[in-house]
Amino acid sequence: MNSQPSILVIDDEPDNFDVVETLLDGENYQLYYASSGQQALNRLESFQPDLILLDVMMPDLNGMEVCQLIKTDPQWQAVPIIMVTALTDKEDLARCLATGADDFISKPVNGVELRARVHSMLRIKQQYDDMQVLLKLREDMVNMIVHDLRNPLASIILGAEILRFPGLSPKHQQGKIDQILIAGQQLQSLIDSLLIMAKLESGKMVLNYTEVDLCALCISAVADIEAMAAQKNLTLISELPQPGGIVAVDAVIFRRVLDNLLSNAIKFSPSKSQVTLRGEYLPAGGAKVQVADSGSGVPEDLRQIIFQKYEIGTLMPEVSQIGLGLAFCKIAIEAHGGTITIRDNHPYGSIFTVLLKNP
In whole angstroms, what is the distance from residue 242 CA to residue 246 CA? Predict the structure, then answer.
């Protein structure tokens, strides 16, 4: 719903609209007027209000008929309708509700009651709108998860099918085995990340802090990503502190952050470029880790939303974009009490910086 909710008043008496406008003055509503049921139906073809105030007693199409027509159309069903009526008989009021009205208010209209009922209906409409956004996001998330699970799975199946061919040279066999292994690791990483994110967000995961050697952890992460880098003919550069230094982290989760940042950098870097992993201990305690790539970079206006689940920066058709890795990194690092940021890597690419404090 907009910051200024819209209300369509349907009444054959313009004076009644003036009354409603006066009673709702100062409520930050945008009011619209239709002098007949047919005019209102015509207006709804091009604009959907957040709420309708509908007079019952009108010539031609009366309010109950208009309400029924609106509520039988799927595109308008969610718009709340408050019937404004001079009828007092219980059966008449029941008929108003039976036609699909969400509420009613009696004439003469009382200002306090009108504002309360309008506010109530708009609150319900807002809840409905929020739910639709959530359902759409969930649908998009499911579609993206299925898409990104299928990519490595298809690679595994294709590699396995080729291995069944007779007479395949040892070199080609090894290449297909490497392809299957990389795809399997990608598949496992995505599934594990989904499970860990769900636990972190629900507060059901307690970080298992241990003291680890930052240099050794980074070297291990680089070693596991070398095959993926080799496929794109990329150079991996490590600028790390001397072995023996200690940083307190959940080693499993922090290692997954490194894996996501490195694989993301490799994915978006052009062939024959380089990806750099830097690490250092901070004088005040904690550590800083940076992953620099040579890709197309991230525009300023996208640097926050790329850390949101299933958001991507620049769409690149040739690149599988999970839209999950950076969100995982943000949730995991913030669970450690740290921060993750992005800036330009001149002349091309991006630098992701992770700052960790002592727990």
Answer: 11
